[in-house]
Design goal:
The protein is built from 13 helices and eleven strands. With about 375 residues, it is an alpha/beta fold. Helix 9 (about 255-265) crosses helix 10, helix 10 (about 275-290) packs antiparallel against helix 11 (about 295-310) and helix 12 packs across helix 13 (about 360-374). Magnesium ion binds near residues 144, 192 and 277.
């Protein structure tokens, strides 16, 4: 039996202005990418990927595109966050022009969130905007970065500071591609999966507690989880595309998490994004419990589950340490979500009951972090 025999799961993202699109989720989808991309109508579809993913899946996707009658090509950047740079963005943009990508053609972002953000931003600005397809190959990219239209690169002054909203025309999430992911990247993506349950779906968090092993093993649970997460993200994006309100809930665990990433250095390998998020989720729930908002038992349940899946949940687990409370607070204050010096947190009244809490007192956070570090 070939892997493509099972019909993919579909999540529709009903954005207005003809910008609606489908997210297809299933094992083996990359091998049939060509026909699905060709159905969008284009003469060329050029793949932007990283060298690791190119070696694993580049030929498969290119051959499928060419078999469907599309002129194709591959632009492969170095793997890693450092490729979300001005220099790589320029190289990718010029590469797409050299491949003669015209207004009606397509860019195919094949890879993790780095490639999706970089290729999406190049597509957004090439010839004032060409269409693009997301073919996410990490769990994080399948449940988070490939959906919602945020694209961009980093400035030396901060992460994701240069970017554009540019929605993909199609998302192809081949869940079999995750079989080659390292356990560490798989776990990191899983922190974002669990996050959706914690934000607004206690039933899904309970489902995760019961089914996470099947997701890691590549059973049907994996497709189901990716679909549930995409549905949750799509619903938020459709209600608040530009993050004027509710979309901020997706940052649960990220205020603490980003600070830890900043303190350890983004490409140092000490902490990957999802590990920072796992600690951040645990801290957000313990902080909520400390403020009397959330039962302590629920905060314990969150950390227990993440730890069972192999994720860090405490500041002490940051490799090489993360400095003191003041250092963490300073790193948080650099976050672009901080307005007028007041800290905005996403807190929770319980599992699945998160809310936006603006104006959190710095001293309160400091006392909490001091206790956490003790
Ligand atoms: P990544 O793209 O760097 O991928 C992680 C590593 O896995 C890379 O080394 C890559 O080469 C490798 N890889 C990818 N697919 C593989 C596969 N199938 N098999 C083996 N190896 C594979 O990192 P990521 O975690 O996917 O994404 C992180 C980025 O996503 C960050 O830059 C972050 O800012 C961004 N992001 C964007 C959004 C958004 O809404 N646009 C949301 C969340 C995160
Ligand atoms: Mg994240």
């Amino acid at each position: 039996m070939t892997e493509t025999e099972r019909a993919p799961l579909t999540v529709h993202v009903p954005l207005d202005g003809g910008r609606d699109y489908d997210i297809l989720i299933g094992r083996g989808l990359l091998a049939s990418a060509g026909a699905r991309v060709a159905a969008l109508g284009a003469r060329a579809a050029v793949i932007v990927t990283d060298e690791t993913v190119a070696a694993l899946y580049g030929d498969r996707v290119r051959e499928s595109l060419e078999a469907a009658g599309l002129r194709s090509g591959v632009i492969a950047v170095a793997p890693g966050e450092a490729s979300k740079s001005y220099a790589t963005y320029a190289a990718v943009s010029d590469g797409l022009l050299a491949h003669r990508v015209e207004r009606n053609d397509l860019v195919v972002a094949l890879g993790g969130g780095v490639v999706g953000d970089l290729a999406g931003f190049a597509a957004a600005t090439l010839r004032r905007g060409v269409r693009f397809v997301q073919a996410p190959t990490t769990l994080l990219a399948q449940v988070d970065s490939s959906v919602g239209g945020k694209t961009g690169i980093n400035s030396p002054l901060g992460k994701n500071l240069i970017g554009a909203f540019h929605q993909p025309r199609l998302v192809l999430a081949d869940t079999a591609a995750l079989d080659t992911l390292t356990q560490r990247e798989m776990r990191a993506g899983y922190a974002e999966v669990a996050k959706y349950g914690l934000i607004g779906d206690a039933g899904f968090f309970a489902w995760c507690e019961a089914n996470w092993r099947g997701l890691f093993a590549g059973g049907p649970e994996r497709d189901e989880a990716v679909a549930i997460c995409c549905r949750a993200k799509a619903a938020v994006v459709v209600r608040d595309e530009r993050e004027d309100g509710e979309r901020a809930l997706l940052n649960l665990g990220h205020t603490f998490g980003h600070a830890l990433e900043r303190l350890t250095g983004y490409d140092s390998g000490r902490l990957v994004h999802g590990e920072g998020v796992a600690i951040g989720l645990s801290l957000a729930f313990r902080f909520s419990a400390r403020l009397g908002l959330c039962p302590g038992q629920e905060a314990g349940r969150v950390a227990n589950h993440l730890a069972l899946a192999g994720l860090p949940t405490r500041l002490q687990q940051v490799p090489g340490g993360c400095g003191d409370a003041e250092a963490i607070l300073d790193a948080m204050a650099q976050d672009k979500k901080v307005r007028d010096g007041a800290l905005t947190f996403i807190l929770a009244r319980g599992i699945g009951k998160s809310f936006i809490a603006p104006g959190i007192d710095r001293a309160e956070v400091r006392a909490f972090l001091d206790d956490e570090l003790r």
